[in-house]
Amino acid sequence: MPIQIRSAAPADIPVITAIYAHAVRHGTASFEIDPPDEQEMAHRRKALLDGGFPYIVALNGSEIAGYAYAGPYRTRPAYRWSVEDSVYVHPEAHRRGVGRALLEHLILESETRGFRQMIAVIGDSAQTSSIELHRAAGFRLIGTIQNVGYKFDRWLDSVLMQRDLGPGATTKP
Fold first, then answer.
1. Tens digit of each residue's pLDDT (9 = 90 or more) over 12-41
2. Burial of 28 (0-12, 13-18, 19+ CB in 10 A)
3. CB 3.0 to 4.6 Å from 82: which of 4, 40, 93, 117, for a disulfide?
4. 3-164 has which fold?
């Protein structure tokens, strides 16, 4: 069955919260240590939507297989044309094209909203699947901030990747 993408709804928050909690507890995609509750996740979703950013879910049949959103890369006004992407896939849906479908749709949604750059901040340089996912979607490696986070009793890098959205920096916004 093909993966379907739609905007995240308030009713999706319990599943989104569970997917994110697993990522926080077992992975390095997020540098959070304690997973937030449903109320906090609902607040985060609303803040992004109120800011004009896309927030989407991937469906495999009727089940949510993952979610993604774009948010501000930085809060200073000059950064307003740049977004940071976040993609989280249910652990049982890894390596099934869910992340790719989410990222491709997120890129299109961000371009439609007028954003010009997308930045990926990938937790841990050992996250080769995430790095390759972004590379396949047109991101280029910008650099690695070494040993910037500490989680699971070890130091973690942040890998920075970037891609143009729409005309990128070739024209004024």
1. 999 999 999 999 999 999 999 999 999 999
2. buried
3. 117
4. Aminopeptidase (3.40.630)
Give the containing element (helix H, strand E) for 105. Answer: helix 98-112
Give the DSSP letter string of 2-48: -EEEEE--GGGHHHHHHHHHHHHHH-SS---SS---HHHHHHHHHHH
- The strand ranges marked E within the chain are 3-7, 55-60, 63-72, 82-89, 117-123, 140-151, 154-164
Q: Are strands 63-72 and 3-7 parallel, antiparallel or unpaired?
A: unpaired
41: left (phi over 0), alpha (psi -120 to 50) or beta: alpha
Please, what sign has the CA dihedral across residues 21, 161, 71, 68? negative
Token pair belonging to 140: 């280029």
Can you tell me the distance from the alpha carbon of 44 to that of 36, in angstroms, rounded to the nearest whole number?
Answer: 10
Region of 64 (left: φ > 0; alpha: ψ -120 to 50; beta: rest) is beta
Distance from C-alpha of 99 to C-alpha of 129, rounded to nearest angstrom: 10
Phi/psi at 143 (nearest 5 deg)?
165, 180
